[in-house]
Amino acid sequence: MAQQTMTNVEPFVDSTPLLDAPEALRERAAEQGYLFFRSLLDSESVLDLRRQILGVCQQHGWLDDDAPLMDGIARDGELFIEGNAPEWIAFYIDVQRLRAFNALALHPAILAMFATLFGEEALPHSRNICRVIFPNALTHTTPPHQDNFYIGGTDETWTAWIPAGDCPAALGSLAVAPGSHKLGKLDVQKATGAGGHAVELPEDTLWAGGDFVAGDVLICHSLTAHQGQDNESGDRLRISLDYRYQPMSHPVREDSLEPHMHFTDWENIYAKWDADDPLKYYWRAWDLQINPRIR
Fold first, then answer.
1. What is the pTM of this model?
2. Nearest to 180 by CA among 206, 151, 212, 143
3. 152-187: per-residue pLDDT in tens?
């Protein structure tokens, strides 16, 4: 299973006007299980990170050397899928070492938005995720799933999905199933695509989707079903970021504070950062309820 065909699609509802109306924002979040914000972030921060990630792609030989870097044009014939292949591991560790990749998760606009939603300070998980989807990898499009399966901890964890640059639907932007969080935890099955697991939804499920521009942010509840759309661009990489947040007072599972995929550790990630960088181990300054992962 990869992308589920969507026959019933509506455009995202922009919740930006509700940032100054906390109760209305929370009511919409409770009803829809997702919130979409136009230009929540400054485009400069997003595009700077895009430039750095594409620089890593270029270093690993994934890009067309004759095309402008920021276009993200894949080298003809190249295809790399997220997983345990040595080529992917080497690329991903280099992305995880980027300070900007980790810093964007703590952008003041994101933290302020989640504090409004939660009614208390937000805990940003440090297990940050970068997805790179090649244009000729349709069988590996992220399938419909619920993030709670991977996160554990509190159900009130939300994922922020941020494209690293403009991302029209045809490039593979994210789609969500409004209200699906009310279905509770759905049965999970093995699947192809990022994450490797999926849930099954009825064919007539209502989806919300659309085009993104740099700075747009989509957030969804840990039980809201969502999926990637196929990268039909023909030649461009789709690059996106997954950052997760929860109320500070809720329990967090220990692996949500560990590097994604466990290819490396924080010491390696931080090795070339300034010794006194305040971003290092930022979560250790808080009195958190950390629960062990059940092995």
1. 0.96
2. 206
3. 999 999 999 999 999 999 999 999 999 999 999 999
pLDDT by residue (tens digit) across 45-94? 999 999 999 999 999 999 999 999 999 999 999 999 999 999 999 999 99
- Position 128: which residue type? N
Q: If 0-12 CB within 10 Å is exposed, 13-18 middle and 19+ buried, where does residue 179 land?
A: middle
Please tell me the distance from the alpha carbon of residue 191 to that of residue 102, in angstroms, as a whole number: 28
Q: How far apart are CA 267 and CA 244, in angstroms?
A: 22
CB-CB contact of 205 with 180 (8 Å): yes
Closest by CA to 6, choosing from 140, 176, 167, is 176
Helix 22-32, helix 108-118: angle, nearest 10: 80
Angle in degrees, 0-180, between the axes of helices 43-59 and 86-96, rounded to the nearest 10: 140
Name residues whose C-beta falls within 8 Å of residue 140's C-beta, 6 or more positions apart in sequence: 2, 81, 82, 133, 192, 193, 194
